[in-house]
Design a protein that fits this description.
With 258 residues, this protein is of the alpha+beta class. The chain has helices spanning 75-97, 100-105, 107-132, 143-150, 157-167, 174-187, 203-206, 209-230, and strands at 2-7, 11-15, 22-26, 40-41, 44-45, 48-49, 52-53, 57-59, 64-67, 242-247, 253-256. It is globular.
């Protein structure tokens, strides 16, 4: 079995088992000859990466990824998420081109910004889609779970995480919920007084390179799960794709049969 890696702009390069040459495949085609039958539904090829069909996922430069925005219910909220990702890209450009002191200073606004985007995505799931999409519904959430959630007031970052954990709405693994909660507490350090006493007392010791990388991965995992589970069947893709400003932290390998 060969493995394919996402590389370069907008395609996959697959190394042949019998040749050292690489073949380029555009991410928007079906890959029908490369994938086993279980990746097909109704005759439509559905090759996947991390559970996401490739037609919902684009590789841009290096290993930076664009994800479909088709899971977003509130288009204006989606536009604002895109806008804030653009702000993040500017912060990353400055962080990568400046001296180490600048890179360290920018860790706090970057991590806080990542946290606000994660909260907005969960807000869209709970306050917009679950609460208001009574006719359209929400894919992959049973109707009895939807009704149970609608009977509650779930309107804060911590409540989103706690309920999602109890209903396993963001996956089976407990670590994603622990990571989201850590990101939430880091986001709350936007309040300089830190009355909750989260993490180290000094901002300079709290907002580290390791925590920035962890925040990046947490947001990327959240987006990838939203795309894999909650794409709207009738989405018109009115919101631009979600382009992340860091190299992907997710496994970019796809098993293939030859």
């Amino acid at each position: 079995m060969e493995r394919a890696r996402i590389r370069g702009r907008g395609g996959i390069h697959r190394r042949s088992a019998v040749s050292s040459r690489y073949t380029r495949y555009n991410l928007k085609v079906g890959f029908a000859s490369l994938y086993p039958p279980y990746l097909f539904a109704g005759g439509v090829p559905r090759p996947m990466l991390n559970g996401i069909p490739f037609n919902q996922l684009l590789c841009v430069k290096n290993k930076q990824m664009k994800y479909s925005s088709g899971f977003i219910g509130d288009f204006k909220l989606g536009d604002n998420i895109v806008h804030n990702l653009a702000i993040l890209r500017e912060l990353y450009a400055t962080q990568s081109s400046g001296p180490a002191t600048t890179a360290n200073l920018l860790r706090k606004p970057i991590i806080v910004w990542i946290g606000t985007i994660a909260e907005a995505i969960l807000y869209d799931l709970y306050v917009v889609k679950i609460s208001k999409f009574t006719s359209e519904g929400v894919p992959n959430i049973p109707s009895d779970v939807l009704e149970e959630i609608r009977d509650k007031t779930i309107d804060e970052f911590a409540k989103y995480i706690d309920n999602a954990r109890s209903k396993k709405l963001v996956g089976e693994e407990p670590q994603i919920y622990n990571n989201l909660d850590e990101l939430r507490r880091l986001r709350n350090r936007v309040h300089i007084q830190n009355t909750k006493g989260h993490f180290e007392r000094d901002d300079g010791n709290t907002f580290t390179d390791a925590r920035q990388r962890a925040a990046e991965r947490t947001l990327e995992e959240l987006i990838s799960i939203m795309v894999a589970r909650y794409l709207r069947s009738n989405s018109k893709h009115c919101v631009e794709e979600l382009q992340l400003p860091w190299d992907s932290h997710l496994d970019a390998e796809v098993p293939q049969t030859l």
